[in-house]
Amino acid sequence: MSMAIGAVVLAAGMAVRMGRQKLLLPLAGKPMLAHVLEVVAAAPFASRVVVIGEPQEALAALCREQGIPSVFNEKRQSGQASSVRLGLSELPGDLDGVVFFQGDQPLLTESLVKRMLEAFHQLRDYKAILVPMHAGVLRSPILFGADWLEELALLKEDCGGKELVRRYPEYVRTLPWAEHFVFEDADTWEEYLRLQRLLETKSKE
Predict the structure, then answer these.
(1) What is the DSSP string of 120-187?
(2) What value, to the nearest 5°, has the Cα angle with vertex 187 and ends 184 and 189?
(3) Which residues are within 8 A (CB) of 99 and not within 5 positions of it... i.e. 6 or more apart?
(4) Three-class SS of residue 80?
(5) Given its phi and psi angles, is residue 133 left (phi above 0), alpha (psi -120 to 50 degrees) or beta?
(6) Residue 70, CB half-sphere, CA atoms under 13 Å: how many?
(7) Cβ neighbourhood burial of 202 (10 Å; 0-12, 13-18, 19+)
(8) Is residue 156 pLDDT above 90, yes or no?
(9) Which tens digit of pLDDT belongs to each residue from 187-201?
């Protein structure tokens, strides 16, 4: 019997360090967020939602292009917890688990997401927190079994799902992953330029 997994894409951040709306910056001919949305749209999720900020219409349009519903977070300035809570509130209540994606992780691959879903199906543990690991470091996205959804909905201020990973290490199940590039994100202009170089390199492979 297959398990029903939901997906929440967190795309309402204030991009304070970048100083501009990074999710619309171009990478390989399309906005950064579009890369993540394509991967999420292609995966066999039971339900999906993108939590967006400003500019609302431009971000919502990207989501519509991929057929993924979006919801605007009016409380995004209070921190990531508000986006986690809002995203969960938009999903059905009978899911077996939820994956949280970061909107600024454009080199994410379908193969990583597929393997995470397969691993969770094999675990069949609603108390599991499945986290990819590279070079001994826990990464994103993170898959939370259904038993964690109520506690995720109680997070406050700038605490995201990683807070539960830190708080409950005994429930964390790691998925070793050899490719480092899939976890690259862009919080600064320099990191964005590095992503551009990585994509150029990969396009030549």
Answers:
(1) HHHH--TT-EEEEEETTEE-S-EEEEGGGHHHHTT--TT--THHHHHH-GGGEEEEE---SGGG---S
(2) 100
(3) 5, 6, 7, 8, 45, 113, 116, 117, 141, 142, 143, 144
(4) helix
(5) beta
(6) 26
(7) exposed
(8) no
(9) 888 888 988 888 877
Give the list of residues 6+ apart from residue 192 with CB closer than 8 angstroms, or none. 18, 22, 25, 32, 186
User: For the segment 45-94, what is each residue's pLDDT rounded down to a tens digit?
Assistant: 999 999 999 999 999 999 999 999 999 999 887 778 899 999 999 999 89
Count Cβ atoms below 10 Å from residue 33 Cβ, excluding itself. Answer: 27
pTM above 0.90, yes or no: yes
